[in-house]
Amino acid sequence: MTRPSADAGASDAEIIQLIQAFIGAQTGETPPEIVRLHRASLGKSRENWSLDAVWGGDASGPEPLIVRRDPEGGLVDTDRELEFNLLRALEPSGLPVPKVRWLDATGEWLGRPSLVMRRLAGESDYFVVNNDHLPLATRVSLAERFCDLLAAVHLVPWAQLGLGEILPDPGPGAAEAELARFEQVLRTDELRRYDEIEAILAWLRDHAPRSEPTVLVHADFKPGNVLLADGEITALLDWELAHLGDRHEDLGWVTQPLREREHLIAGAWERDQLLQRYADATGFDVDEDALHWWQTFATFRTLVMQVSGLRAYVEDRSDKAYRPTQKVLSTGMRQITKGSAA
């Protein structure tokens, strides 16, 4: 029997058939009935299908699941097997991470590399801390809890959980390692060179800080990757970029100028308040020079992702033409021409 296609034009019935065959192969049992299939989103890096699996004879009710699959083209390439193994290792950590169920590492069953995980309750809102429909006290409380969650990520005993067997430890050279990683992506995907990107890259090379101690870095920490239900945090999602490295990387990402509206509240939850709460929660000092470097790196990384998005569009792997914008280019140039972020 010919397996149905999993391309973008596949019908819901074909997608259901693929998922059922995949789950059946993983469990060795009669696959569940798939109901309420919904393409939850087409993110900038992954495709997501929401569904409920109804197992025969299971009185506990349907199992809520998410199928997370690589798109044909995205802003950054990541590894589903690594993400799967990381999430599994983090299950006993106490962090609100989704439980992973099955992995299609090669895309043999679902067309492209995919993982299936338990779907948790809640909704995400990129700009919830600046949602004027919520009382200011509520928004500040949320911002504080987001900060506490980031601190909890950095306090994870990664060596005890075996993350060193999954992720390389760059040691004091975390900045150089991440810079080299994204410079390679830039050189692979660029269709032309931008003077601003070259200047930002040169500055980053010349000012890379040393790092200690090594922590687990989420690398895309934002309210848009946090699920909230009745005002409570239920999940931290999108671990595809996570790695071992410098705590200032996540701090630079959340305090960079491009993301202030996601993380800060003017006059109520400013940069210094976030950094002080983080320091109190972790016991880690914040090095202002290192923070400034990682804020600049965050802008560089955004530009590289835009470069990759444009190549994906040109090669007909994406239907949206991302490209380096003047806003991001200008932000990066301002970063390298000012002193410490203090």
> Mind describing the biggest β-sheet?
5 strands, antiparallel
Instruction: Please identify, by name, the CATH architecture of the largest domain.
Output: Alpha-Beta Complex
Helix- and strand-based class? alpha+beta
SSE string, helix = H, strand = E?
Answer: HEEEHEEHHHEEEEHHHHH
Overall number of structural domains: 2
Strand order of the largest sheet: 1-2-3-5-4
Helicity, as a percent range: 40-55%
- CATH homologous superfamily title of the largest domain: Aminoglycoside phosphotransferase (APH), C-terminal lobe
According to CATH, the fold-level topology of the largest domain is: Aminoglycoside 3'-phosphotransferase, Chain: A, domain 2
The CATH class name of the largest domain reads Alpha Beta
Estimated share of beta-strand residues: 5-15%
Classify the oligomer: single chain
Rg: 21 Å
Compact description:
The protein has helices at residues 12-27, 80-90, 136-154, 174-189, 195-207, 247-255, 260-263, 271-282, 288-314, 326-337; strands at residues 33-42, 47-54, 63-69, 100-104, 114-118, 215-217, 226-229, 232-236, 243-245. It is built from 10 helices and 9 strands.
Describe it.
It comes from Baekduia soli. By secondary structure, this protein is of the alpha+beta class. It folds into two domains: 12-118, Phosphorylase Kinase, domain 1 (2-Layer Sandwich), CATH 3.30.200; 128-337, Aminoglycoside 3'-phosphotransferase, Chain: A, domain 2 (Alpha-Beta Complex). The protein is 41% helix and 15% strand. The protein has ten helices and nine strands. It has helices at residues 12-27, 80-90, 136-154, 174-189, 195-207, 247-255, 260-263, 271-282, 288-314, 326-337; strands at 33-42, 47-54, 63-69, 100-104, 114-118, 215-217, 226-229, 232-236, 243-245. The chain has a five-stranded antiparallel sheet, with helices on both faces. A two-stranded antiparallel sheet has the order 6-9. Strand 7 and strand 8 (232-236) form a beta hairpin. Helix 3 packs across helix 8 (271-282). The chain is globular, with a radius of gyration of 21 Å. The termini are far apart.
